[in-house]
Design goal:
The complex is a heterodimer. By secondary structure, chain A is an alpha/beta fold. Chain A has one domain: NAD(P)-binding Rossmann-like Domain (Rossmann fold, 3-Layer(aba) Sandwich). Chain A is 31% helix and 16% strand. By secondary structure, chain B is an alpha/beta fold. Chain B has 17 helices and 12 strands. In chain B, strand 5 (183-186), helix 8 (191-194) and strand 6 (204-208) form a beta-alpha-beta unit. Chain B starts with 8 loop residues before the first helix and ends with a helix. The chains are: A alpha/beta, B alpha/beta. The A-B interface holds A 5, 30-31, 33, 35-36, 39-40, 43, 107-108, 130, 133, 136, 140-150, 152-159 and B 3-5, 7, 11-12, 15-17, 19-23, 25, 47, 50-56, 62, 64, 67-68, 70-71, 74-75, 79-84, 248-251, 255-256, 258-260, 263-264, 266-267.
């Protein structure tokens, strides 16, 4: 996988094959980026389970917060990492252990060694991207903000997914 | 990050940003002539106001017709995103508004469109923004000017108005980056059909879409395009993007939106609070115009080259400043940055100076005497008595708009008819 240039079809397949996201580093504060992403993904039909040892037992956007990935009591499709690049390494390894299909590292987060380990275990890896931005980009919403989606199509777009 | 598209420039000019209307299937982009947009419910409204969801609130911040043009121009420039504005001047104000603070300064090329000189040197002073003008051909002078701790940006035109001067973008980008500031390039005169400044390291591109992008002299507009490549957090120079924004409950734009930060800020703060929004009708006209940009630029440049050669050998012409002519100082830069083309706007001087120039302008039958450029129609102007009138004579000369200078913008008419018109006008001059 070329982690400098993902194809639209790769990102689309990852997003389409995901139903449940465990969000590591999810913040209970409404003005933090993770909260934005969680709320958006919920609105698009994803189940998002927050993981944050500092907020374990609390609720974020109607979901119970767990202290670590292994404590999440249900199957996880994607682990979305809101931590720095170094911290992302052990979290990616845990994602492999809990049987996730995808490890996703947020904007500015990149750990190539951890990515290689996860890929060797058969997982999809996306780094330095945001699933909210990517979902909006591939579904015609991001252009509403003047952003270049890179998508060209002569088909009718869905107004909302 | 800069976007490399698998599609060719002509395909992007027609399709980028514009899919069939989701509700009706309309293939041409509809003119969404509305001021506001209904919310699904209170929570949806809250998400939109908090910038947590994508969508339209009020047309001052965004409009579906306008955003098609934004994505179109962003794609043509290979940029990450764009913010449309009411005019090119508004685009300059909006870009600087995001970067500057009271007491801050920027460095700009001294050979700039006269309207930009006045905006930068006089009107921006009222915001507490200082501008230092330097000759951007003199790299040592640029480097020296960028050393001031207050400097937030380096600004130049890819192809300068009116003088046919071309900026050496690649080394200028390196100088700006060494100083920790972005290079901003006004790409109006070249258009992305000739020059894509991001490919040479520029960080922000400014357009007056009124000119070649619209191309028909009928729609005002401007654009701020962000490459998405500049790391705003590399120093503490850009607090609007890297510090908590009180008007959005402490939101940090760069942390939250990454390489979209400048474009989101342009809409959510710039357009919201300054208000220089592009009208949907103007966006529609610019969208239509942009579809033929590559074709028009080819003919604009071909016609301009023919007329420049004609003038260059005419006995009543003292000099021609057109970078496409052999021996012109900027010819190597035209080859490097503009694909060997030199645009369709250039200046020349007639023997007989100010009076002869004025008489030539007034004697034209086909060329229109007006202050615009990048029209299908050919245009002629005497900058010293019009567009550059507010400058001192010293500034006029430094901007390439001295008393004997005439500026022409070559349109898409038959070249021999344009030559005949200039010939008859000069016979009387």
């Amino acid at each position: 996988m070329d982690h400098d240039a993902y194809s639209n079809s790769y990102i689309r397949d990852v997003l389409n094959s995901t139903k449940t996201v465990a969000m590591v580093g999810a913040s209970p504060k409404w003005n933090r980026p993770s909260y934005f992403v969680m709320k958006y993904l919920q609105a698009k039909g994803y189940r998002v389970i927050p993981v944050n040892p500092g907020a374990a037992g609390q609720e974020i956007l109607g979901e119970t917060v767990y202290g670590d990935l292994k404590s999440v009591p249900e199957p996880i499709d994607m682990v979305d990492i809101f931590r720095n690049s170094e911290a992302a390494g052990p979290i990616a390894d845990e994602a492999v252990e809990v049987g996730a299909k995808t490890v996703w590292m947020q904007l500015t987060v990149r750990n190539d060694a951890a990515a290689a380990r996860a890929e060797a275990a058969g997982l999809n890896v996306v780094m330095d991207r945001c699933p909210k931005i990517e979902f909006a980009r591939l579904n015609g919403e991001i252009g509403w903000s003047g952003v270049n989606s890179g998508v060209i199509s002569s088909k009718r777009r869905r107004a909302r997914a | 990050m800069t976007q490399e598209s698998p599609y060719g420039f002509e395909t992007l000019a027609i399709h980028a940003g514009a899919a069939p209307d989701p509700a009706t299937g309309a293939r041409a982009t509809p003119i969404y002539q509305t001021t506001a947009y209904v919310f699904d419910d209170a929570d949806h409204a809250a998400s939109l106001f908090n910038l947590q969801d994508y969508g339209y609130i009020y047309s001052r911040l965004g409009n579906p017709t306008v955003s098609v043009l934004e994505e179109r121009v962003a794609a043509l420039e290979g940029g990450r995103g764009a913010t449309a504005t009411a005019s090119g001047h508004a685009a300059q104000m909006l870009a600087m508004f995001t970067l500057m603070e009271p007491g801050a300064s920027f460095v700009a090329a001294n050979k700039l469109y006269g309207g930009s000189v006045t905006q930068f040197m006089r009107t921006f002073q009222k915001f507490g923004w200082d501008c230092e003008m330097v000759d951007v051909d003199d790299f040592a002078a640029v480097e020296e000017a960028l050393k001031k701790s207050t400097v937030k940006a380096l600004f130049c035109e890819s192809l300068a108005n009116p003088g046919g001067v071309i900026s050496d973008l690649e080394p200028l980008a390196e100088l700006a980056h060494a100083a920790g500031v972005p290079l901003i390039v006004d790409n109006t005169m070249a258009s992305p059909a000739l020059c894509r400044p991001f490919e040479w390291g520029a960080d922000i591109v400014i357009h007056s879409t009124t000119k070649f992008i619209s191309g028909h002299g009928n729609a005002m507009g401007g654009m701020v395009v962000d490459s998405g490549n500049f790391n705003w957090a590399q120093n503490d120079k850009f607090p609007s993007l890297t510090q908590p924004e009180p008007a959005y409950h402490g939101l940090n734009f760069f942390e939250t939106f990454g390489d979209l930060a400048m474009t989101v800020h342009g809409h959510a703060v710039g357009l919201r609070d300054l208000g220089p929004t592009m009208a949907p009708m103007n966006a529609f006209l610019a969208i239509t115009g942009s579809e033929t940009l590559p074709l028009r630029m080819e003919r604009h440049c071909q016609n301009a080259a023919e007329i420049a050669h004609f003038l260059n050998t005419h006995p009543k012409v003292a000099w021609v400043s057109y970078a496409g002519l052999e021996g012109n100082k900027y010819k190597p830069l035209a080859d490097k940055y503009l694909g060997g083309k030199a645009g369709s706007v250039f200046t020349f001087g007639v023997k007989g100076g100010y009076e002869a120039g004025l008489q030539l302008v007034e004697s034209c039958e086909l060329f229109s005497h007006l202050a615009n450029l990048g029209d299908t129609r050919s245009l002629i102007l005497h900058p010293a008595s019009t567009t550059h009138r507010q400058l001192t004579e010293e500034q006029q000369i430094s901007a390439g708009a001295g008393p004997d200078v005439l500026r022409i913008s070559i349109g898409l008419e038959t070249a021999k008819d344009l030559i005949a018109d200039l010939e008859q006008a000069m016979a009387g001059a």
